[in-house]
Amino acid sequence: MHTNLFNIVLLAFFLTIGSAKMYAQETRTQKLDAPAIQKTDSKVIEVKLGTVTDSIKKDTLKPAKTFLDGKIKYKAEDYTTIDQKKKLLTLYNKAELYYKDIELTAGKIVMNYEKDEIYAGRIKDSTGKLTQNPVFKQGANVVTPDSIRFNFKTKKALVYNSRTNQGDFNIKAAVTKKESDSVYYMQNAIFTTAKDIDNPEYYFQTRKVKLVPGKKVVVGFTNMVIADVPTPLALPFAFFPMSEKSTSGILIPSYGDSQERGFSLQNLGYYFALGDHYDLAVLADYYTNGSYGLRAETNYAKRYAFSGIFNVRFENLISSERGFPDYSKGTIYNVQWSHMKDLKSNPSSRFMASVNLGSSKYFQQSINQANVGSPLNNTLSSSVNYSKTFNTLPQVNMSLTATHQQNTQTEQIDMTLPTFQLSVDRIFPFAPKDGIKKGFFKNINLQYSANARNSISTNDSLFFTKQMFKDANVGMQHNIPLSTNFKLLKHFSATSTFNYQETWTLNTINKIYDPFENKVVTERVNGFDAFRTYSLSQTLATVIYGTFNFNADSNIQAIRHVMKPSLTYSYAPSYDQYYDEYDYDGTGTDFRKFSRFEGSTYGAPGNNMSSQISYNLTNTFEAKVKDKDPTKTTPRKISLLNSLSFRGSYNVAADTLAWSPLSVSGGTTLLKDKMQVNFGATLDPYAIDNGGRKLNTFNIDNGGSLFRMTSANFSMGYSLSSRDASKTKKDNNDQGFRNGGRRDDLFGTNVDLNDTRKSQFDDDEDTEEKITSFFNSDLPWDLTFAYSLTYGNRSRENKIVSNSLMVSVNTDLTPKWKVGVSTGYDFVQKGVTLTQFRFERDLLSWRMDFNWSPIGEYAYWGFFIGIKSGVLSDIKWEKRNQPNRILQ
């Protein structure tokens, strides 16, 4: 079966014409009365229109009722004449007339105040060309005809070659007759969404039109014309319901085919305009092998209150045919919700939601969306948070949070439903009334915080089943830190902290040896239990500054080095009272310790005394250089290293392996902050044996170096663009970002079949600006790349764990042609990563694009051409070859 272009476009045209909206010009009329005639040479004249009364008052006759109850202002550049005999007011060359909400400008305006009519038309310039078309404006409606005749009294008008805008439509009619405020008739009219109504790239042509603004449009024979060439797409008549509000209607499907599932219709559905603040779209997909998909999507918003997006997707997938060995059947689903509360509505409370959960294999197997980067996401995450601030003294903060973390590879799911947090601001019980706190005693402060959590750990098969909630762990933890800080020897800052912690849990365990199963069995015990711990810490920190000055003639004026060393001693006792023993092998000779709090929400307290000294050294390097601008005498600061940190600890209470590995990390920005560079390494002072086990022997004493590098990483990202750097490529409503992807297009751009009119590129530049830039050889472009390297040597494997490069480039070859590519290379696997080519042609009111991923498991291509305007978005043609996503 092959796609029949004519039938598809004809069907889309019929359905679009049957459900589209059209708006026509509403020209309101006013009654016209004769003005008091005044002769003047002034270019700007203001007259108060009314009734001219006789000097002799007649009691038997009522005075004539005025119909122009306002002021008329008018002016003209060449001349203004008033003919009392013919009752004519004539304005010539750049004529303007204003009355109430009516504004009329033209080359020539003639007002007959006896017949209550106004005529406006063009005039000839020195070359004989007609210029200064009339512009008739009443309220928000604007008409630009060749000429117009308007009667104030009957409210009727004749408009010749009118040009007006109604919604997304531009309308031009040879003759328009206005019968009243609610009925218009047009003859030989065209309507289009093209910007240039006099030279449109396409339009719909009809001979007769009846328009009732805000209600309906009825047309006779209508034909679609492309590039002034009539097409066979036509309708004998059509009826368009009109409304300024959103209206419900059918959503036109798109056609596709798949080798695994056959032919398909995708995104067939119905749009429900439920109100001013929210809507609903219900869509469905169907494949000839029996596969189908259902989706419900809604957008909602209320100004200064909230906004959000919610959608649910379900797909029943069948691969191959029943009876074949590769036959498979399964279901996948995905739920996404994004909600943002406006802080203006209530500054003391906030509600936010970012939900992305469902089947772990959804984005790998979904057949509705051409998800380029989404299948590469290894995690799905969600967070729903409500927070409230109580402006008491001290201030109290409360929050409720539900979280979800899902590994799409292992299908492991960790959730908190919910987490409750409460915190009370610091209290200084010994602070003086003047608020100045100095010394150990005055800086003593305490806080209170509570954390209650319902933790769930499950997998895809048990997600939202009864067993999932049965295995939940519930607990609550109270923290009361008591601390103070003070200066020591003028240059050191000291902080002392005592922390008391109490933990409650509703789930504990018990371990016993089962002689029948010949193994240790862990039993779950439900019921309230608690343990209490405390710890002490003392921190000493300072800041050291060092500056190295260069010669005055040097470009580098000085280099500044800032060091922030800190030393912390912490102590926590052993909590053996919370540990019991169990018979490990049933012999009664091998007993091992365990805590009944193991596996609970907050874990078990330590059974070994901790007496530990931690050290941390953070460095920053800056340079002062001469500014390239010779007029500036102040040197310019640049960052050499944003951070270079060394961290480690020594356990005083440990008998062996007292020194922890040394952690080194750092980062900086280069090339005017366009490039971000980060690096890190872990250095272990102890040696290992041939089996990879750590020895209580320093590596240097075992014939090695001072430290043994067990891991290292290096990453670099670079973004460069000729466009405004402040413009973000993707916002929070971008579908790829909501799927868990990146904001940039390093992994390609997602093709959302729900709205293929959307550009794959940033299309926020004006066409005229792009053309000007083109002739100035300043083509818009952007470049993004990321490089990542990870080294592993924990057990003498001494190998590169990962080494990859990702690149994305977009540019405008011409003001109308856009091209882009996203690709990469994996140096470990020695292969090209997922690659996408993007091509797009701006056809003014139309758009054409081609999207192609030539290699990999998700290889596909797609072509689209259609009208940009949402009113006629269903007039399109698209063809795509979807990837064969077989169930795993």
Tags for this entry?
single chain, 888 residues, mainly beta, 30-stranded antiparallel β-sheet, 17-stranded antiparallel β-sheet, 5% helix, elongated
Determine Rg (CA atoms, Å): 39 Å
Unreliable runs, pLDDT <50, ≥5 residues?
1-67, 764-776
Report the sheet-strand fraction.
over 45%
The number of helical segments is 6
General shape: elongated
Share of helix, binned? under 10%
* Biggest β-sheet description: 30 strands, antiparallel
How many beta-strand elements?
53
Structural class: mainly beta
Mean model confidence by pLDDT: 82
N- and C-termini, Cα separation: 29 Å
Tell me what you see in this structure:
With 888 residues, this protein is mostly beta strands. The chain is built from 6 helices and 53 strands. It starts with a helix and ends in a 7-residue tail after the last strand. Mean pLDDT is 82; it is low at 1-67 and 764-776.
Compose a concise summary of this entry.
It is built from six helices and 53 strands.
Furnish the topology, listing elements before pairings.
Elements lengths: L4 H15 L24 E5 L22 E5 L3 E5 L4 E12 L2 E11 L4 E5 L1 E2 L5 E2 L3 E4 L2 E3 L3 E5 L5 E10 L2 E10 L5 E9 L9 E11 L3 E4 L2 E5 L2 E7 L2 E4 L7 E3 L2 E5 L3 E11 L7 E8 L4 E11 L3 E14 L8 E14 L7 E10 L3 H4 L13 E12 L5 E12 L4 E16 L11 H4 L2 E15 L6 H5 L2 E16 L3 E23 L4 E23 L2 E6 L6 E17 L6 E5 L7 E5 L14 E16 L10 E16 L10 E9 L4 E10 L1 E3 L5 E5 L9 E14 L13 H4 L28 H9 L5 E12 L6 E14 L4 E10 L4 E2 L3 E8 L2 E8 L6 E8 L8 E6 L7
Antiparallel strand pairs: 1-2, 2-4, 3-4, 4-5, 5-6, 5-9, 6-11, 7-8, 9-10, 11-12, 12-13, 13-14, 14-15, 15-16, 15-17, 16-19, 17-18, 20-22, 21-22, 22-23, 23-24, 24-25, 25-26, 26-27, 27-28, 28-29, 29-30, 30-31, 31-32, 32-33, 33-34, 34-36, 35-36, 36-39, 37-38, 39-40, 40-41, 41-42, 42-45, 43-44, ...
